[in-house]
Amino acid sequence: MPEFCTFVTMKSGFVYILSNPAYKEMLKVGRTSDLPETRAKALSNHAGVLESFKLEWSKEVPNIVLAEYMLHYVLSPYSYKKEYFTIPLADAIKICNEALDRLFKPLKSITNAHSKVNPERLKYLKAKALELEPKLNALNAEKTTGISIIPLGEKNTSWEMVSNSLNYSFGKKAIELSLKEGKTGDPLRKRFVSYRSKYMDMERIDLYFTKKYLLIYVQTSQAIKNKRELKKIFGADFKNLDIADWKYGFNFKITSPAQFKILEKTLKMGHKSKVPVALM
Q1: pLDDT tens, 244-278?
Q2: Last residue of one domain, picked from the residues 99, 114, 141
Q3: pTM for the model
Q4: Same structural domain for residues 121 and 181?
Q5: Residues 6+ apart with CB under 8 A from 25
Q6: What does 134-168 look like in DSSP terms, one character per residue?
Q7: Helices 64-74 + 89-103 axis angle, to 10
Q8: CA atoms within 13 A on the CB side of 208
């Protein structure tokens, strides 16, 4: 597997998160063998770049290829295009830090970064790198069904714990209505994947519970049509949904009780009923 051979080359460097005022709510996640500040400056000097990139976070790692691959994997649900992701900065930093801590934890026992790694140690590290193969294969296999990310939080996380951690009251109601339908969801990742399938001319609708708002992911091949329908449903509040496109459709935020009331009625939350074929 030549792809994984590059992972154990152990080329050190930095992985980073950059922001740019020209790209609203979008972050660039990448790698560099140079200083991340130098990389940000170089990217800012490229032709066609409207504003300068700002370094928001960086971390030195022993293997930049493996590290970048892992970060792109765990951030894939928020992918916009290539190295760009639509996700709040604080959430991106938290996910990246935890992913790297877990990925390189076996390396912490090496006290001298410049010393040679003995054959047995290298064999162990290669095995750890190859453990990622199923996850990386899944990244391609799950493109049409949703992408799982590394769990964040304790394994015994319950929906009650998730509900108590939210800063908005309608989040608790959304969880209660989903469970009422018999859906189990994934409290560890704070989401109900495929909450609705083949619904309202959309392939799939997922619910993600962030701390400050309810994030709705829509997988669809008719994004323009679906957005027009949503505009009719939400009316003047449509502009406040903060819609953002992603690789397989678009996502939007539910940030107020009024918006949630509309969403609840539209998705017929808490009811097991026949699926409507269109929004209207």
Answers
A1: 988 789 999 999 999 999 999 999 999 864 433 33
A2: 141
A3: 0.48
A4: no
A5: 86, 88, 242, 244
A6: HHHHHHHHTTTT-------S-TT--HHHHHHH-SS
A7: 130
A8: 17
